[in-house]
Amino acid sequence: MDFPYSRLRRWPDVEADNLQAYDATDLLLVERGLASGVAGNEIAVIGDEYGAITLALAAAGLDGVRVHQDLATGRRALARNADELGLSGFSSHELDATLLDGARLVLLQLPKALAELEEITDAVARWSASDVVLVAGGRVKHMTIAQNEVIGRGFAEVQAQRAERKSRLVIASEPRPVPAHPPFPVVAKHDGLTLVAHGGAFAGAKLDIGTRVLLEVLGLDGSRLSIDAPDPTGSAPETADPADPSCVVNGDESSPATTVVDLGCGTGALAASYALAHPEARVIATDRSAAAVASARATVAANGVGDRVAVMHDDAGSALADASVDVVLLNPPFHLGSSVHTGAATRLFEAAARILRPGGELFTVFNSSLGYRAELTRLVGATEQLERTPKFTVTRSIRR
Question: Are 307 and 330 within one domain?
């Protein structure tokens, strides 16, 4: 029986008529996996966006397949799709030795960033079986010779296959010896701020222009922020939970503090900068990318604020309680994978509106060509422009 790809959903990620939960590359990778003769427990899948590859292999009777998905939305979609189809027999892992130990076949949906591909290629060559074959696939319009060159640094044989259904596979074999230390994470210093980045983190260890503009508008001393400490309505709990954004720990007592969320934190530049400038604040950094979360955790540790910044792998702040946050800092994406789509930003605006207390503030930076101010007013509350450059606009929205 053919696998029911059409039953797969992207949810909780953005869903739209022009977005689906699988593509032709998934089908080609599944076909290659089924034809390989490799046992399920010797197969690793990387970049399976919503579970199409993993679940098709499981449905065909391959047991023990290991899978790594960077996005929290993809992990939740895989679990939900598996439940919907009544499938199991696979396990989820981070990009580490537990994913790749003993793997003889790795099926990879090519990532957009070359740095991410470099980190993945090194991991496969470093931890997999000595006879591992890496099968990487993508849509032809998004594939480049540079991708082959990156894969070639980790494998002696790299062969591009003929395109089928507007997708193409690249087959790599004979892994090369790896350096003593992995190429990632990388570290860079920016005017007193240290950034640490894994390959899949947006902008790498650079301070992207939008974040830089937002930092300048906020000011290191917080002079542009108008924040009132929350007015507690009840007594503090006897024991403070470090993951509870409603309090910080001071000795044996819990006291209310301004709670600030870096929503879609990337490498954690905003979270670390705010924590450095406001040691009294409780800062939470959250991102749906596992690479971003690992980077942000390393960044806050490198800047000495790891004890005051909680970093969460989460989808649009879904683990945060309603009306529990005083300030949200946001530099939203305007891409979903390789597609330009404003749905990701809209979901983050909605998330900010949900987690902010009435009167709480959302500071957003976005490309000046995007008309987000009206949408921010509609979803969050009254929105004013604080800064506008030819490339970026910074706004302040007050939660109604």
Answer: yes
Statement to judge: residues 236 and 115 lie in one domain: no
Strand partners, 44: 66, 106
Mapped to the 3 state alphabet, what secondary structure does the chain carry?
A: CCCCHHHCCCCCCCCECCECCCCHHHHHHHHHHHHHCCCHHHEEEECCCCCHHHHHHHHCCCCCEEEECCEHHHHHHHHHHHHHHCCCCEEECCCCHHHHCCCCEEEEECCCCHHHHHHHHHHHHHHCCCCCEEEEEEEHHHCCHHHHHHHHHHEEEEEECCCECCEEEEEEEEECCCCCCCCCCEEEEECCEEEEECCCCCCCCCCCHHHHHHHHHHCCCCCCCCCCCCCCCCCCCCCCCCCCCCCEEECCEEECCCEEEEECCCCCHHHHHHHHHCCCCEEEEEECEHHHHHHHHHHHHHCCCCCCEEEEECCCCCCCCCCCEEEEEECCCCEECCEECCHHHHHHHHHHHHHEEEEEEEEEEEECCCCHHHHHHHHCCCEEEEEECCCEEEEEEECC
Domain that holds residue 156: 5-175
Number of compact structural domains in the chain: 2
d(CA 32, CA 37): 9
Are residues 199 and 167 part of one domain?
no
Indicate if 170 and 192 belong to the same structural domain. no
Predicted TM-score (pTM) of the model is 0.89
Identify the residue with better confidence: 247 or 214.
214
* Domain match, 101 and 207 both: no
CATH number reported for the structural domain that contains residue 209 in this entry: 3.40.50.150
Task: Check whether residue 161 and residue 260 sit in a common domain.
Answer: no
Between 234 and 323, the more confident residue is 323
Which of 175, 207, 224 corresponds to the end of one domain? 175
Residue 252 pLDDT > 60: no
Percent of the chain with pLDDT over 90: 84
Predicted confidence (pLDDT) per residue in 14-46, tens digit: 888 888 999 999 999 999 999 999 999 999 999
